[in-house]
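Hey L., structure's done. Input below.
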Amino acid sequence: MRHLIAPPLRAVHSAALHVVGAGSYALRARPEDDGAMWPALAVRCRHALPAHLSWAAALLDPEHPLPVICGEPQVREFFHWLESLPNTERVSIGCERQAPPQGDPQAYADAPGPVPGDR
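Output:
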């Protein structure tokens, strides 16, 4: 009997983003930064996660953390909460701004800041 392995799932915040494309961010767990402490720290953070940030629970999975796509307000709220935790209870989380599709200047139309290529 042959077993198929499903690709890893990706957690995506289900609420509408305020700005699609240039205004979306990927939050990614960085267990390599916390080493052997990652599982214990992730469990503590996940238990301390407020209900209004429950969309980030997959990010704090102690064994298989998944990236989460969200908007800038959610990123700010998440990091504000994370920074409020004691140093000994924080996990390392990376944040990457998601680039819009190449060659799509309209994707930048509503985004704050300069448009790439404009000077």
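The first helix runs from residue 31 to 34. The chain has three helices and four strands.

-- N.
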